[in-house]
């Protein structure tokens, strides 16, 4: 969230949550500096190849995925969720470490949007959602749902509302026991937040 954190701070439901969000950000920055790491080494080479040029670009994408709901909780790494609604969780941006942290905090399903097709599973069903149709066509055995038509805006595609309804139905099916593609292939991965810096 570095560089875009104020968007979430401004959505905190009360001053206590605001202060916890500020502490979450500052603690994570201190974690980087205590290991003599430059925060701005992120985004990764893959991010840059995909068009993300700065840490702020990446952070804006991260915060945008939270929607517009107010922040109802701020969790330390490994802390279980206690409050319904949008909760911020302290974890690195690494896909698998972050997804494992979400599962440890109580997430039952993870919706993972990707433009590059990061190949991983997590301890809970991880719905891989492609942001472009080329990725979906290239990795049909890995990507569960294609949202590329929204960006491509072709005449035969569904509207945003229709595609949203289809995704909702798919997620409901997964919540009811349908296996995502990584589960069908027998994959479950796990990675913990270890000492040292994980980008």
Give the averaged pLDDT, no decimals.
Answer: 86
Distance between the termini: 12 Å
| Helix and strand element order | HHHHEEHEEHEHHH
Number of helices: 9
Low-confidence stretches: none
Rg of Cα set: 17 Å
The SS-based structural class is alpha/beta
Care to count the β-strands? 5
Strand order of the largest sheet: 3-4-5
**What proportion strand?**
5-15%
Task: Assign a percent range to the helix content.
Answer: 40-55%
Reported for the largest beta sheet, the result is:
3 strands, parallel
Shape: globular
Tags for this model:
199 residues; alpha/beta; 3-stranded parallel sheet; two-stranded parallel ribbon; 5 strands; globular
Summary?
The protein is an alpha/beta fold and 199 residues long. Helices cover 41% and strands 11% of the residues.
Question: How would you characterize this protein structure?
Answer:
- The chain is of the alpha/beta class and 199 residues long.
- It has 2 domains: 1-90, no CATH class; 92-199, no CATH class.
- Helix content is 41%, strand content 11%.
- The chain contains 9 helices and 5 strands, in the order ααααββαββαβααα.
- The chain has helices spanning 5-9, 15-34, 45-49, 55-64, 95-105, 133-138, 148-152, 160-175, 181-184, and strands spanning 71-75, 86-89, 110-114, 126-130, 145-146.
- A 3-stranded parallel β-sheet has the order 3-4-5, with helices on both faces. A two-stranded parallel sheet has the order 1-2.
- Helix 6 links the parallel strand 4 and strand 5.
- It starts with a helix and ends in a 15-residue tail after the last helix.
- The relative contact order is 0.12.
- The model has no long low-confidence stretch (mean pLDDT 86).
């Amino acid at each position: 969230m570095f560089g875009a954190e104020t968007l979430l701070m401004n959505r905190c439901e009360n001053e206590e949550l605001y202060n916890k969000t500020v502490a979450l950000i500052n603690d994570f920055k201190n974690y980087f500096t205590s290991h003599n790491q430059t925060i701005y080494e992120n985004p990764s080479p893959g991010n840059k190849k995909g068009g993300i040029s700065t840490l702020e670009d990446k952070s804006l994408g991260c915060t945008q995925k939270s929607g517009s709901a107010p922040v109802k909780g701020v969790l330390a790494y490994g802390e279980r969720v206690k409050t319904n609604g949008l909760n911020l969780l302290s974890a690195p941006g690494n896909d698998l470490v972050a997804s494992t942290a979400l599962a440890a905090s109580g997430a039952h399903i993870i919706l993972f949007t990707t433009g590059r097709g990061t190949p991983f599973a997590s301890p809970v069903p991880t719905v891989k959602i492609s942001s472009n149709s080329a990725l979906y066509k290239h990795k049909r055995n890995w990507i569960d749902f294609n949202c590329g038509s929204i960006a491509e805006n072709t005449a035969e595609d569904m509207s945003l509302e229709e595609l949203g309804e289809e995704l909702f139905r798919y997620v409901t099916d997964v919540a009811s026991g349908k296996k995502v593609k990584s589960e069908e292939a027998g994959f479950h991965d796990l990675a913990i937040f270890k000492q040292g810096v994980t980008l």
